[in-house]
Amino acid sequence: MAVVVDDETNPFRLPPDDQIFVIREKERQRRAEERERVKHQKVWQKTTASSRVHKNRRIDDGIDEAQIAAEAASKTKTQRRDGAVTRETRREKENVSEFVKKKREMFLVQMHLDVQKAEILKLDERAKKKDEALKRSQQMLEEDVTRFDAFLQTTDKNAHKALKNAEEKTKIKTEKIQKIRHLRSQLSAITSEIAKLSEQKDECIKFKGFLEKLTPQEWKDEKDNEKVERQLSRKRQWVQEQMAGHKADERAEIEAEERAMEEKAQENSRGRRRPKREAEEEGKEREREMEAMRRRIRKKYPTQETVETEYQGIDSGTERELYFKQPKQLLDVFTSLEGSNLFLIQNSQDTEQVLEEVQQKIEEMQSKYETTTKRMMENISKLEQQIESENRRRKELKEQLSEKKNSSEQEKLLTDMCNKVVEVHAACFKEKEQYPDTHKMLKAIEAKLEELLTYLDEVEETELGRKQVEELEKQYNKKRRDKQRRLKVEKEDRKKESKREDSLRRSQAPSHKKVGKQIMFRSPPLYQEKREVEEDDGFEDNCKDHRVFGIWIDNEGMPNAEKPQKLT
User: Fold this and answer.
1) Closest C-alpha to 488, from 498, 480, 476
2) pTM, two decimal places
3) What is the per-residue DSSP string for 431-452?
Protein backbone atom coordinates (compact mmCIF):
# COMPACT_ATOMS: atom_id res chain seq x y z
CA MET A 1 0.00 0.00 0.00
CA ALA A 2 1.63 3.19 -1.18
CA VAL A 3 0.86 6.34 0.76
CA VAL A 4 2.13 9.74 -0.27
CA VAL A 5 2.61 12.12 2.61
CA ASP A 6 2.97 15.79 1.92
CA ASP A 7 5.22 17.57 4.37
CA GLU A 8 3.42 20.87 4.11
CA THR A 9 -0.20 19.63 4.33
CA ASN A 10 0.26 16.79 6.91
CA PRO A 11 0.41 18.17 10.46
CA PHE A 12 0.68 14.72 12.04
CA ARG A 13 3.44 12.18 12.24
CA LEU A 14 4.23 8.82 13.86
CA PRO A 15 7.42 8.31 15.82
CA PRO A 16 9.83 5.64 14.80
CA ASP A 17 9.58 2.16 16.30
CA ASP A 18 12.70 2.44 18.38
CA GLN A 19 11.47 5.62 20.11
CA ILE A 20 7.98 4.52 21.20
CA PHE A 21 9.15 3.15 24.59
CA VAL A 22 11.48 6.11 25.11
CA ILE A 23 8.52 8.45 24.60
CA ARG A 24 6.57 6.61 27.28
CA GLU A 25 9.44 6.94 29.75
CA LYS A 26 9.82 10.63 28.96
CA GLU A 27 6.08 11.15 29.41
CA ARG A 28 6.18 9.51 32.88
CA GLN A 29 9.18 11.63 33.85
CA ARG A 30 7.48 14.79 32.59
CA ARG A 31 4.31 14.00 34.59
CA ALA A 32 6.34 13.40 37.77
CA GLU A 33 8.11 16.76 37.29
CA GLU A 34 4.74 18.42 36.66
CA ARG A 35 3.37 16.98 39.92
CA GLU A 36 6.41 18.21 41.85
CA ARG A 37 6.06 21.65 40.28
CA VAL A 38 2.32 21.80 41.16
CA LYS A 39 3.08 20.95 44.78
CA HIS A 40 5.05 24.18 45.22
CA GLN A 41 2.55 26.41 43.41
CA LYS A 42 0.09 28.81 45.10
CA VAL A 43 -3.61 28.10 45.14
CA TRP A 44 -4.47 30.64 42.46
CA GLN A 45 -1.72 29.28 40.16
CA LYS A 46 -3.12 25.74 40.08
CA THR A 47 -5.58 24.40 37.49
CA THR A 48 -8.48 21.97 37.81
CA ALA A 49 -8.93 18.58 36.10
CA SER A 50 -11.75 19.84 33.89
CA SER A 51 -9.61 22.70 32.57
CA ARG A 52 -6.71 20.33 31.88
CA VAL A 53 -8.94 17.90 29.91
CA HIS A 54 -9.74 20.49 27.21
CA LYS A 55 -6.14 21.44 26.63
CA ASN A 56 -4.49 20.04 23.53
CA ARG A 57 -1.16 18.64 24.48
CA ARG A 58 1.34 17.51 21.86
CA ILE A 59 3.94 14.92 22.68
CA ASP A 60 7.39 16.29 22.12
CA ASP A 61 9.82 13.45 21.28
CA GLY A 62 12.73 15.74 20.61
CA ILE A 63 12.78 15.25 16.76
CA ASP A 64 12.09 18.01 14.31
CA GLU A 65 8.72 17.62 12.58
CA ALA A 66 9.96 18.70 9.17
CA GLN A 67 12.81 16.17 9.27
CA ILE A 68 10.48 13.32 10.20
CA ALA A 69 8.02 14.24 7.44
CA ALA A 70 10.84 14.40 4.82
CA GLU A 71 12.19 11.00 5.82
CA ALA A 72 8.73 9.45 5.61
CA ALA A 73 8.10 10.98 2.15
CA SER A 74 11.45 9.84 0.78
CA LYS A 75 10.94 6.37 2.15
CA THR A 76 7.56 6.01 0.51
CA LYS A 77 8.92 7.33 -2.80
CA THR A 78 11.77 4.82 -2.82
CA GLN A 79 9.41 2.02 -1.92
CA ARG A 80 7.07 2.95 -4.73
CA ARG A 81 9.91 3.22 -7.24
CA ASP A 82 11.53 -0.04 -6.20
CA GLY A 83 8.21 -1.82 -6.26
CA ALA A 84 7.49 -0.67 -9.80
CA VAL A 85 10.90 -1.72 -11.09
CA THR A 86 11.30 -5.05 -9.42
CA ARG A 87 7.61 -6.21 -9.19
CA GLU A 88 7.83 -8.09 -12.44
CA THR A 89 11.44 -9.07 -12.54
CA ARG A 90 11.89 -10.32 -8.99
CA ARG A 91 10.69 -13.77 -8.62
CA GLU A 92 12.57 -14.93 -5.64
CA LYS A 93 10.65 -15.64 -2.56
CA GLU A 94 10.53 -12.83 0.03
CA ASN A 95 11.71 -13.43 3.49
CA VAL A 96 9.09 -13.71 6.29
CA SER A 97 10.71 -11.05 8.41
CA GLU A 98 10.66 -8.58 5.56
CA PHE A 99 7.05 -9.40 4.87
CA VAL A 100 6.15 -8.80 8.51
CA LYS A 101 8.15 -5.62 8.43
CA LYS A 102 6.28 -4.39 5.38
CA LYS A 103 2.96 -5.34 6.86
CA ARG A 104 3.90 -3.51 10.01
CA GLU A 105 4.85 -0.41 8.06
CA MET A 106 1.60 -0.61 6.09
CA PHE A 107 -0.37 -0.92 9.33
CA LEU A 108 1.41 2.01 10.84
CA VAL A 109 0.79 4.15 7.78
CA GLN A 110 -2.88 3.16 7.74
CA MET A 111 -3.19 3.91 11.41
CA HIS A 112 -1.44 7.22 10.81
CA LEU A 113 -3.99 8.08 8.12
CA ASP A 114 -6.91 7.07 10.31
CA VAL A 115 -5.59 9.23 13.14
CA GLN A 116 -5.15 12.14 10.77
CA LYS A 117 -8.68 11.77 9.44
CA ALA A 118 -10.09 11.58 12.96
CA GLU A 119 -8.10 14.65 13.99
CA ILE A 120 -9.25 16.47 10.86
CA LEU A 121 -12.87 15.68 11.73
CA LYS A 122 -12.31 16.81 15.28
CA LEU A 123 -10.71 20.01 14.13
CA ASP A 124 -13.56 20.67 11.68
CA GLU A 125 -16.11 20.05 14.37
CA ARG A 126 -14.21 22.27 16.78
CA ALA A 127 -13.98 25.01 14.13
CA LYS A 128 -17.73 24.77 13.55
CA LYS A 129 -18.36 25.02 17.27
CA LYS A 130 -16.07 28.05 17.50
CA ASP A 131 -17.89 29.68 14.60
CA GLU A 132 -21.22 29.06 16.28
CA ALA A 133 -19.82 30.40 19.55
CA LEU A 134 -18.52 33.47 17.75
CA LYS A 135 -21.93 34.00 16.15
CA ARG A 136 -23.66 33.63 19.51
CA SER A 137 -21.20 35.98 21.20
CA GLN A 138 -21.67 38.50 18.37
CA GLN A 139 -25.43 38.22 18.75
CA MET A 140 -25.08 38.67 22.55
CA LEU A 141 -22.87 41.70 21.97
CA GLU A 142 -25.49 43.19 19.70
CA GLU A 143 -28.18 42.52 22.30
CA ASP A 144 -25.95 44.06 24.97
CA VAL A 145 -25.44 47.11 22.78
CA THR A 146 -29.19 47.51 22.31
CA ARG A 147 -29.80 47.03 26.04
CA PHE A 148 -27.03 49.52 26.83
CA ASP A 149 -28.60 52.05 24.46
CA ALA A 150 -31.98 51.50 26.14
CA PHE A 151 -30.29 51.86 29.53
CA LEU A 152 -28.68 55.14 28.46
CA GLN A 153 -32.02 56.45 27.25
CA THR A 154 -33.74 55.48 30.55
CA THR A 155 -30.93 57.04 32.58
CA ASP A 156 -31.23 60.24 30.56
CA LYS A 157 -34.97 60.30 31.14
CA ASN A 158 -34.48 59.61 34.86
CA ALA A 159 -31.83 62.32 35.07
CA HIS A 160 -34.16 64.88 33.44
CA LYS A 161 -36.98 63.77 35.70
CA ALA A 162 -34.71 63.99 38.77
CA LEU A 163 -33.64 67.49 37.76
CA LYS A 164 -37.26 68.56 37.43
CA ASN A 165 -38.10 66.98 40.79
CA ALA A 166 -35.09 68.69 42.39
CA GLU A 167 -36.19 72.07 41.02
CA GLU A 168 -39.72 71.50 42.32
CA LYS A 169 -38.41 70.38 45.70
CA THR A 170 -36.16 73.45 45.96
CA LYS A 171 -39.15 75.67 45.20
CA ILE A 172 -41.22 73.88 47.83
CA LYS A 173 -38.31 74.11 50.28
CA THR A 174 -37.96 77.88 49.81
CA GLU A 175 -41.73 78.28 50.28
CA LYS A 176 -41.62 76.16 53.44
CA ILE A 177 -38.66 78.14 54.81
CA GLN A 178 -40.53 81.41 54.23
CA LYS A 179 -43.61 79.93 55.89
CA ILE A 180 -41.53 78.72 58.85
CA ARG A 181 -40.02 82.17 59.29
CA HIS A 182 -43.48 83.72 59.21
CA LEU A 183 -44.77 81.17 61.75
CA ARG A 184 -41.75 81.74 64.00
CA SER A 185 -42.41 85.47 64.00
CA GLN A 186 -46.05 84.75 64.90
CA LEU A 187 -44.92 82.27 67.59
CA SER A 188 -42.56 84.82 69.16
CA ALA A 189 -45.38 87.38 69.21
CA ILE A 190 -47.76 84.85 70.79
CA THR A 191 -45.17 83.78 73.41
CA SER A 192 -44.57 87.43 74.37
CA GLU A 193 -48.32 87.92 74.70
CA ILE A 194 -48.60 84.70 76.75
CA ALA A 195 -45.83 85.93 79.05
CA LYS A 196 -47.66 89.23 79.59
CA LEU A 197 -50.94 87.42 80.25
CA SER A 198 -49.24 84.99 82.64
CA GLU A 199 -47.80 87.89 84.62
CA GLN A 200 -51.24 89.47 84.75
CA LYS A 201 -52.70 86.13 85.81
CA ASP A 202 -50.13 85.74 88.61
CA GLU A 203 -50.97 89.23 89.86
CA CYS A 204 -54.68 88.43 89.70
CA ILE A 205 -54.14 85.15 91.58
CA LYS A 206 -52.15 86.99 94.22
CA PHE A 207 -54.86 89.62 94.63
CA LYS A 208 -57.52 86.90 94.65
CA GLY A 209 -55.70 85.08 97.44
CA PHE A 210 -55.45 88.36 99.37
CA LEU A 211 -59.17 88.98 98.92
CA GLU A 212 -60.01 85.40 99.97
CA LYS A 213 -58.00 85.93 103.15
CA LEU A 214 -60.01 89.07 103.83
CA THR A 215 -63.31 87.31 103.11
CA PRO A 216 -65.37 86.63 106.28
CA GLN A 217 -65.42 83.02 107.45
CA GLU A 218 -69.22 83.06 107.87
CA TRP A 219 -69.70 83.82 104.19
CA LYS A 220 -67.24 81.04 103.24
CA ASP A 221 -69.07 78.55 105.46
CA GLU A 222 -72.38 79.58 103.94
CA LYS A 223 -71.08 79.05 100.40
CA ASP A 224 -69.54 75.68 101.36
CA ASN A 225 -72.89 74.58 102.81
CA GLU A 226 -74.63 75.64 99.62
CA LYS A 227 -72.14 73.63 97.58
CA VAL A 228 -72.67 70.57 99.79
CA GLU A 229 -76.44 70.97 99.43
CA ARG A 230 -76.10 71.15 95.65
CA GLN A 231 -74.00 67.98 95.65
CA LEU A 232 -76.55 66.23 97.87
CA SER A 233 -79.39 67.33 95.61
CA ARG A 234 -77.52 65.99 92.56
CA LYS A 235 -76.93 62.72 94.40
CA ARG A 236 -80.60 62.43 95.42
CA GLN A 237 -81.71 63.19 91.87
CA TRP A 238 -79.32 60.55 90.45
CA VAL A 239 -80.43 57.96 93.03
CA GLN A 240 -84.09 58.67 92.27
CA GLU A 241 -83.51 58.26 88.54
CA GLN A 242 -81.64 54.98 89.06
CA MET A 243 -84.26 53.66 91.48
CA ALA A 244 -87.07 54.66 89.10
CA GLY A 245 -85.38 52.72 86.30
CA HIS A 246 -84.87 49.67 88.56
CA LYS A 247 -88.47 49.85 89.80
CA ALA A 248 -89.79 50.03 86.25
CA ASP A 249 -87.69 47.01 85.24
CA GLU A 250 -88.80 45.15 88.36
CA ARG A 251 -92.47 45.93 87.71
CA ALA A 252 -92.19 44.86 84.07
CA GLU A 253 -90.50 41.59 85.02
CA ILE A 254 -93.08 40.87 87.76
CA GLU A 255 -95.96 41.54 85.37
CA ALA A 256 -94.39 39.27 82.73
CA GLU A 257 -93.94 36.47 85.29
CA GLU A 258 -97.50 36.91 86.55
CA ARG A 259 -98.89 36.75 83.00
CA ALA A 260 -96.86 33.62 82.32
CA MET A 261 -98.11 31.98 85.52
CA GLU A 262 -101.74 32.93 84.75
CA GLU A 263 -101.46 31.53 81.23
CA LYS A 264 -99.97 28.34 82.61
CA ALA A 265 -102.80 28.05 85.18
CA GLN A 266 -105.42 28.60 82.48
CA GLU A 267 -103.89 25.91 80.28
CA ASN A 268 -103.85 23.48 83.22
CA SER A 269 -107.50 24.21 84.17
CA ARG A 270 -108.78 24.13 80.59
CA GLY A 271 -110.97 21.17 79.61
CA ARG A 272 -111.80 19.85 83.09
CA ARG A 273 -113.69 20.87 86.16
CA ARG A 274 -112.20 20.69 89.62
CA PRO A 275 -113.78 20.75 93.03
CA LYS A 276 -113.94 24.02 94.90
CA ARG A 277 -111.53 22.96 97.63
CA GLU A 278 -108.88 21.90 95.15
CA ALA A 279 -109.32 25.16 93.22
CA GLU A 280 -108.86 27.14 96.45
CA GLU A 281 -105.70 25.20 97.31
CA GLU A 282 -104.34 25.79 93.82
CA GLY A 283 -105.11 29.51 94.14
CA LYS A 284 -103.28 29.69 97.50
CA GLU A 285 -100.35 27.75 96.05
CA ARG A 286 -100.27 30.14 93.08
CA GLU A 287 -100.29 33.14 95.44
CA ARG A 288 -97.38 31.68 97.41
CA GLU A 289 -95.42 31.06 94.21
CA MET A 290 -96.13 34.59 93.00
CA GLU A 291 -95.00 36.04 96.33
CA ALA A 292 -91.78 33.98 96.22
CA MET A 293 -91.26 35.08 92.63
CA ARG A 294 -91.69 38.74 93.63
CA ARG A 295 -89.19 38.36 96.48
CA ARG A 296 -86.71 36.66 94.13
CA ILE A 297 -87.06 39.43 91.52
CA ARG A 298 -86.69 42.14 94.19
CA LYS A 299 -83.45 40.54 95.40
CA LYS A 300 -82.03 40.72 91.89
CA TYR A 301 -82.28 44.53 91.80
CA PRO A 302 -80.15 46.73 94.10
CA THR A 303 -81.59 48.61 97.03
CA GLN A 304 -81.38 52.33 97.60
CA GLU A 305 -78.37 51.97 99.93
CA THR A 306 -76.36 50.05 97.33
CA VAL A 307 -77.26 52.62 94.66
CA GLU A 308 -76.11 55.41 96.98
CA THR A 309 -72.79 53.63 97.52
CA GLU A 310 -72.35 53.31 93.73
CA TYR A 311 -72.74 57.06 93.25
CA GLN A 312 -69.52 58.83 92.32
CA GLY A 313 -69.53 62.49 93.22
CA ILE A 314 -68.58 64.74 90.31
CA ASP A 315 -67.50 68.29 91.02
CA SER A 316 -69.16 70.91 88.84
CA GLY A 317 -65.84 72.72 88.42
CA THR A 318 -67.28 76.16 89.13
CA GLU A 319 -65.18 78.26 91.45
CA ARG A 320 -66.62 80.08 94.41
CA GLU A 321 -67.56 83.66 93.59
CA LEU A 322 -65.76 86.52 95.31
CA TYR A 323 -67.25 88.24 98.32
CA PHE A 324 -66.00 91.67 97.32
CA LYS A 325 -67.92 93.29 94.50
CA GLN A 326 -67.57 96.98 95.38
CA PRO A 327 -64.59 99.04 96.71
CA LYS A 328 -66.65 100.16 99.71
CA GLN A 329 -66.59 96.60 101.07
CA LEU A 330 -62.79 96.63 101.09
CA LEU A 331 -62.67 99.99 102.86
CA ASP A 332 -65.03 98.69 105.55
CA VAL A 333 -62.89 95.58 106.02
CA PHE A 334 -59.69 97.65 106.21
CA THR A 335 -61.16 100.00 108.86
CA SER A 336 -62.29 97.03 110.97
CA LEU A 337 -58.91 95.34 110.58
CA GLU A 338 -57.14 98.56 111.55
CA GLY A 339 -59.07 98.73 114.83
CA SER A 340 -58.42 95.08 115.57
CA ASN A 341 -54.73 95.54 114.76
CA LEU A 342 -54.45 98.45 117.23
CA PHE A 343 -56.09 96.31 119.87
CA LEU A 344 -53.73 93.43 119.11
CA ILE A 345 -50.67 95.71 119.26
CA GLN A 346 -51.69 96.92 122.71
CA ASN A 347 -52.26 93.31 123.84
CA SER A 348 -48.89 92.25 122.42
CA GLN A 349 -47.13 95.02 124.41
CA ASP A 350 -48.87 93.88 127.58
CA THR A 351 -47.95 90.26 126.89
CA GLU A 352 -44.31 91.23 126.28
CA GLN A 353 -44.16 92.83 129.73
CA VAL A 354 -45.72 89.75 131.29
CA LEU A 355 -43.29 87.57 129.31
CA GLU A 356 -40.28 89.47 130.65
CA GLU A 357 -41.52 89.01 134.21
CA VAL A 358 -42.11 85.30 133.58
CA GLN A 359 -38.60 84.92 132.10
CA GLN A 360 -37.07 86.50 135.20
CA LYS A 361 -39.02 84.10 137.38
CA ILE A 362 -37.93 81.17 135.17
CA GLU A 363 -34.26 82.16 135.50
CA GLU A 364 -34.58 82.32 139.28
CA MET A 365 -36.30 78.95 139.31
CA GLN A 366 -33.62 77.45 137.03
CA SER A 367 -30.81 78.60 139.33
CA LYS A 368 -32.70 77.20 142.31
CA TYR A 369 -33.36 73.92 140.51
CA GLU A 370 -29.72 73.60 139.42
CA THR A 371 -28.58 73.71 143.05
CA THR A 372 -31.22 71.15 144.01
CA THR A 373 -30.28 68.89 141.07
CA LYS A 374 -26.61 68.98 142.06
CA ARG A 375 -27.56 67.99 145.59
CA MET A 376 -29.81 65.23 144.25
CA MET A 377 -27.08 63.90 141.91
CA GLU A 378 -24.68 63.67 144.85
CA ASN A 379 -27.34 61.77 146.80
CA ILE A 380 -27.93 59.49 143.77
CA SER A 381 -24.21 58.69 143.49
CA LYS A 382 -24.09 57.87 147.20
CA LEU A 383 -27.18 55.67 146.86
CA GLU A 384 -25.66 53.87 143.86
CA GLN A 385 -22.54 53.13 145.85
CA GLN A 386 -24.71 51.80 148.68
CA ILE A 387 -26.66 49.70 146.16
CA GLU A 388 -23.44 48.23 144.76
CA SER A 389 -22.21 47.38 148.24
CA GLU A 390 -25.59 45.80 149.05
CA ASN A 391 -25.49 43.82 145.81
CA ARG A 392 -22.03 42.49 146.63
CA ARG A 393 -23.25 41.59 150.09
CA ARG A 394 -26.31 39.91 148.54
CA LYS A 395 -24.06 37.85 146.28
CA GLU A 396 -21.92 36.80 149.21
CA LEU A 397 -24.99 35.81 151.20
CA LYS A 398 -26.38 33.98 148.22
CA GLU A 399 -23.12 32.03 147.81
CA GLN A 400 -23.15 31.14 151.47
CA LEU A 401 -26.77 30.07 151.23
CA SER A 402 -26.11 27.94 148.15
CA GLU A 403 -23.24 26.22 149.97
CA LYS A 404 -25.39 25.52 153.00
CA LYS A 405 -28.50 24.32 151.19
CA ASN A 406 -28.55 21.72 148.48
CA SER A 407 -31.40 23.24 146.50
CA SER A 408 -30.11 22.94 142.98
CA GLU A 409 -33.38 21.56 141.55
CA GLN A 410 -35.47 24.34 143.07
CA GLU A 411 -32.98 26.92 141.82
CA LYS A 412 -33.12 25.40 138.35
CA LEU A 413 -36.91 25.48 138.38
CA LEU A 414 -36.88 29.13 139.47
CA THR A 415 -34.39 30.06 136.73
CA ASP A 416 -36.46 28.24 134.11
CA MET A 417 -39.59 30.06 135.26
CA CYS A 418 -37.73 33.36 135.21
CA ASN A 419 -36.47 32.65 131.66
CA LYS A 420 -39.98 31.77 130.49
CA VAL A 421 -41.37 34.98 132.00
CA VAL A 422 -38.61 36.97 130.26
CA GLU A 423 -39.41 35.29 126.91
CA VAL A 424 -43.15 36.01 127.28
CA HIS A 425 -42.42 39.63 128.26
CA ALA A 426 -40.10 40.08 125.25
CA ALA A 427 -42.74 38.56 122.93
CA CYS A 428 -45.40 40.92 124.32
CA PHE A 429 -43.40 44.16 124.37
CA LYS A 430 -40.67 43.46 121.72
CA GLU A 431 -37.94 44.63 124.11
CA LYS A 432 -35.87 43.22 126.97
CA GLU A 433 -35.71 44.67 130.46
CA GLN A 434 -32.27 45.79 131.57
CA TYR A 435 -32.84 44.61 135.15
CA PRO A 436 -35.73 42.13 134.96
CA ASP A 437 -37.99 41.73 137.95
CA THR A 438 -40.32 38.73 137.73
CA HIS A 439 -43.20 40.33 139.63
CA LYS A 440 -43.09 43.49 137.52
CA MET A 441 -42.92 41.50 134.29
CA LEU A 442 -45.87 39.32 135.37
CA LYS A 443 -47.90 42.46 136.16
CA ALA A 444 -47.04 43.91 132.75
CA ILE A 445 -48.01 40.61 131.03
CA GLU A 446 -51.36 40.55 132.90
CA ALA A 447 -52.05 44.15 131.86
CA LYS A 448 -51.22 43.27 128.26
CA LEU A 449 -53.53 40.25 128.43
CA GLU A 450 -56.39 42.39 129.78
CA GLU A 451 -55.78 44.93 127.01
CA LEU A 452 -55.83 42.21 124.34
CA LEU A 453 -58.97 40.63 125.82
CA THR A 454 -60.79 43.97 125.80
CA TYR A 455 -59.65 44.48 122.20
CA LEU A 456 -61.01 41.03 121.31
CA ASP A 457 -64.33 41.88 122.98
CA GLU A 458 -64.52 45.08 120.94
CA VAL A 459 -63.68 43.18 117.74
CA GLU A 460 -66.29 40.50 118.49
CA GLU A 461 -69.01 43.14 118.72
CA THR A 462 -68.84 43.53 114.93
CA GLU A 463 -69.99 40.66 112.71
CA LEU A 464 -66.83 40.58 110.60
CA GLY A 465 -64.58 40.63 113.67
CA ARG A 466 -66.59 37.85 115.33
CA LYS A 467 -66.24 35.69 112.21
CA GLN A 468 -62.48 36.30 112.08
CA VAL A 469 -62.09 35.45 115.80
CA GLU A 470 -64.11 32.24 115.36
CA GLU A 471 -62.00 31.23 112.35
CA LEU A 472 -58.77 31.91 114.28
CA GLU A 473 -60.07 29.89 117.28
CA LYS A 474 -60.96 27.02 114.96
CA GLN A 475 -57.50 27.12 113.37
CA TYR A 476 -55.76 27.23 116.78
CA ASN A 477 -57.91 24.37 118.18
CA LYS A 478 -57.20 22.34 115.05
CA LYS A 479 -53.44 22.92 115.41
CA ARG A 480 -53.60 22.06 119.12
CA ARG A 481 -55.54 18.85 118.44
CA ASP A 482 -53.11 17.90 115.65
CA LYS A 483 -50.16 18.56 117.96
CA GLN A 484 -51.70 16.48 120.78
CA ARG A 485 -52.51 13.70 118.34
CA ARG A 486 -48.98 13.78 116.93
CA LEU A 487 -47.45 13.74 120.46
CA LYS A 488 -49.70 10.89 121.44
CA VAL A 489 -48.73 8.89 118.34
CA GLU A 490 -45.03 9.61 118.95
CA LYS A 491 -45.37 8.53 122.60
CA GLU A 492 -47.11 5.29 121.57
CA ASP A 493 -44.46 4.67 118.91
CA ARG A 494 -41.67 5.20 121.48
CA LYS A 495 -43.42 2.88 123.92
CA LYS A 496 -43.85 0.22 121.22
CA GLU A 497 -40.25 0.63 120.14
CA SER A 498 -38.99 0.22 123.74
CA LYS A 499 -41.17 -2.87 124.20
CA ARG A 500 -39.88 -4.27 120.92
CA GLU A 501 -36.27 -3.63 121.94
CA ASP A 502 -36.83 -5.22 125.37
CA SER A 503 -38.42 -8.30 123.81
CA LEU A 504 -35.60 -8.53 121.25
CA ARG A 505 -32.99 -8.19 123.98
CA ARG A 506 -34.70 -10.88 126.07
CA SER A 507 -34.96 -13.20 123.07
CA GLN A 508 -31.27 -12.72 122.19
CA ALA A 509 -30.01 -13.05 125.77
CA PRO A 510 -28.53 -16.48 126.62
CA SER A 511 -30.52 -18.63 129.01
CA HIS A 512 -28.68 -19.69 132.24
CA LYS A 513 -29.86 -22.50 134.42
CA LYS A 514 -29.35 -22.03 138.11
CA VAL A 515 -27.26 -24.96 139.30
CA GLY A 516 -26.16 -25.65 142.84
CA LYS A 517 -26.69 -23.73 145.99
CA GLN A 518 -27.89 -20.16 145.78
CA ILE A 519 -25.25 -17.56 146.48
CA MET A 520 -25.78 -15.80 149.74
CA PHE A 521 -26.14 -12.03 149.84
CA ARG A 522 -23.11 -10.21 151.09
CA SER A 523 -23.34 -6.78 152.65
CA PRO A 524 -21.54 -4.02 150.70
CA PRO A 525 -18.54 -2.29 152.22
CA LEU A 526 -18.99 0.93 154.11
CA TYR A 527 -19.03 3.97 151.85
CA GLN A 528 -17.59 7.15 153.19
CA GLU A 529 -18.71 10.22 151.26
CA LYS A 530 -16.02 12.76 150.68
CA ARG A 531 -16.95 16.37 150.34
CA GLU A 532 -15.14 18.37 147.72
CA VAL A 533 -15.25 22.10 148.09
CA GLU A 534 -14.78 24.11 144.92
CA GLU A 535 -13.83 27.71 145.15
CA ASP A 536 -16.44 29.77 143.29
CA ASP A 537 -15.19 32.93 141.63
CA GLY A 538 -18.70 34.01 140.49
CA PHE A 539 -18.35 32.48 137.01
CA GLU A 540 -21.82 30.85 137.03
CA ASP A 541 -23.52 34.03 138.26
CA ASN A 542 -21.70 36.04 135.62
CA CYS A 543 -22.83 33.59 132.90
CA LYS A 544 -26.42 33.80 134.19
CA ASP A 545 -26.33 37.63 134.20
CA HIS A 546 -24.88 37.68 130.68
CA ARG A 547 -27.55 35.24 129.43
CA VAL A 548 -30.44 37.20 131.02
CA PHE A 549 -29.30 40.83 130.77
CA GLY A 550 -26.60 40.65 128.06
CA ILE A 551 -24.08 42.24 130.50
CA TRP A 552 -22.17 41.20 133.62
CA ILE A 553 -20.07 42.96 136.29
CA ASP A 554 -16.55 41.75 137.12
CA ASN A 555 -14.88 41.72 140.54
CA GLU A 556 -13.63 45.27 140.01
CA GLY A 557 -17.19 46.55 139.47
CA MET A 558 -16.80 47.24 135.72
CA PRO A 559 -19.62 46.18 133.34
CA ASN A 560 -18.71 43.89 130.41
CA ALA A 561 -20.82 42.97 127.35
CA GLU A 562 -18.61 40.03 126.21
CA LYS A 563 -19.20 36.44 127.32
CA PRO A 564 -17.39 35.71 130.64
CA GLN A 565 -14.39 33.39 130.59
CA LYS A 566 -13.55 30.98 133.43
CA LEU A 567 -10.20 31.60 135.12
CA THR A 568 -7.94 28.53 135.38
Assistant:
1) 480
2) 0.29
3) S--SS--HHHHHHHHHHHHHHH
